[in-house]
Each structure stands twice: as structure tokens, then as C-alpha cells.
Amino acid sequence: MLPLGSIREGDGDVSENEVCCSCPSGRAEDGRVKIGIAADHAGFALKQELTKALRATGHEILDYGAHKLDPQDDYPDFVGPLAKAVAQGTVERGIAICGSSIGACIAANKIAGVRAGPCSDNYSAHQGVEHDDMNVICLGGQVLGNALARELLETFLAARFTGEERHTRRLKKIADLEQGQQ
Fold this sequence. Notes:
This protein is of the alpha/beta class and 182 residues long. It has 6 helices and 5 strands. The chain has one domain (4-178): Sugar-phosphate isomerase, RpiB/LacA/LacB (Ribose 5-phosphate Isomerase B, Chain: A, 3-Layer(aba) Sandwich), CATH 3.40.1400. Helix content is 39%, strand content 13%. It has a 5-stranded parallel beta sheet with strand order 2-1-3-5-4, with helices on both faces. α2 crosses α3 (102-108) and α4 packs parallel to α5 (146-158). The chain is globular.
């Protein structure tokens, strides 16, 4: 697969009918990452750009919307289904985009099993996965340029959870919080 940075901006349109996600596990049979993506109006243009770049590098994408630019739409309507797909394992990783990344992050983290984080730097994009098993990256369509967003995604998708005892212990405590046990 090509790195995302090798994809130029504006290489074609993405249609709402271009869903190519068919197997129930988070990874495609050939090892490609199955990714869900969602954005409201403030992240719509960035979502379109990132979807094109990800498909061009061979990843399978499930697009949870928005499928058209509507200034009146609301990010929970798109991020909620994306987060549920991540929690259920339909997709391995998720990308949630709103204007700043914060609202999408709040909405995604309401779903048990989702560990979403806002990222605007490479360290957070890999450390969030390596230490915190982050499975949804939240990006700000109004605060990130396309090139930086592609770079952050490449970093996020390449990162793997270390599984170290201290990190696993912390994730267990988070799971307990989700179950109301702490």
C-alpha cells in the first residue's frame, strides 16, 4: 500500500455509494485496515479528501456520512453510528471529523468500547494507539490542512497497541468506568 502522503489532493470525487466494506472483522482478508469515517458539515470536505486518499492506498472504507454538504447537520448523527461500528468490530479503526475535533470526540466516547482522541500532532496519533489503544482518531476539519490530516492518519493507522501490563491495567480501569464499577 502507498503511504497517504503520496496521494495528491483533488484526485476525484467520492460517492456515497462507494462503500467497500464487506467482511465482519476489523481487518480485510489481505491485511488491509477496514476503516469507518464520519463527518458533519464542518468536516465534510476533509472527509471527502481523506476517503479518496485511503481508498487509493488500498484500505476498505465504510462511510457513515454525511453524504452531502448540509450546514444544518449534526455530528452525533454520523459519529454515533461510526463509534458503534468500531465498538462492534465492524471496522478496526474510525475517523471522526467535525470543525474542531472536540464535539466528535465527545460523541464517540459515549459508546462503550470506543477510545477516541483528538489529534493534531504525530505524537498523539501514535501514542494514543500504543499506550491507550485509541481506536477512533478525531480530526478538526476547520483547524487541520489536508496534508497534515493525511500524515496524522498514516501515523494512526501504522501504530499498534503495545499490550504492556501498565497500559492493559489502565484500559481495564476504563472498562470498569464504562460498566459503572468505579
